[in-house]
Design a protein that fits this description.
Blueprint lengths: L9 H10 L20 H15 L2 H9 L1 H5 L1 H6 E6 L4 E6 L4 H6 L1 H12 L6 E6 L18 H11 L5 H21 L1
Parallel strand pairs: 2-3
Antiparallel strand pairs: 1-2
Length: about 180
């Protein structure tokens, strides 16, 4: 009487699993026709693929992420990849004064981008004079050196810190705070 229900008989379940092919079942159902769990990665990639392809695919994302490495720091400060069409036309935002120069250097830029990807990903450039989405980072000013008495006081406070990296980071922070305090006085 301690017998398990028929659906939970281990011998029967292993035989059914061996006979059934999961590829024969309908999507979202197990081999026995019951709803089951499925991995979402495949479904998500099928849904996202047309959207990503319309927007230039992974090429545009990689291009934006590594733009300074692809074209150099000087051009990256004045240009930004905006869109990439299916036929390889890259729409490039350009600061107004650089547009005529870039128009002459377009073949070189296309060659540099294609060489970076290792295949002909870009066929043509369309230059658009528009504001760049990311402002260039302002150059950091060098912090003026601390007077010797303040520097010695800071070193005495940091003597108790055992970790050399932490001590160096705290020393830099202390110098910046002291320089900022002197500037505001």
């Amino acid at each position: 009487m301690n017998r398990a229900p028929r659906d939970h008989d281990p011998a029967r379940l292993s035989a059914a699993a061996a006979e059934s092919d999961p590829r024969d079942s309908a999507p979202g159902q197990t081999a026995r026709g019951r709803p089951g769990l499925r991995a979402i990665g495949l479904a998500a990639s099928r849904l996202a693929a047309p959207i990503v392809a319309r927007r230039g695919g992974g090429i545009l994302a990689r291009l934006k992420a590594e733009w300074p490495a692809v074209v150099g720091a000087e051009l990256a400060a004045a240009t930004w990849p905006d869109r990439l069409s299916r036929d390889g036309v890259l729409r490039l935002r350009v600061a107004g004064t650089l547009a005529p120069d870039l128009q002459h250097r377009a073949p070189l830029l296309i060659e540099r981008i294609n060489q970076y990807f290792g295949r002909p990903a870009i066929s043509r450039l369309v230059l658009v004079q528009a504001p760049l989405p990311l402002p260039s980072a302002p150059a950091r000013r060098a912090t003026p050196p601390l007077p010797t008495n303040e520097s010695q006081a800071l070193d005495r406070q940091l003597d108790a810190v055992a970790d050399p990296e932490l001590r160096a980071a705290l020393a830099r922070l202390g110098r910046l705070v002291a320089a900022n305090a002197r500037r505001n006085d």
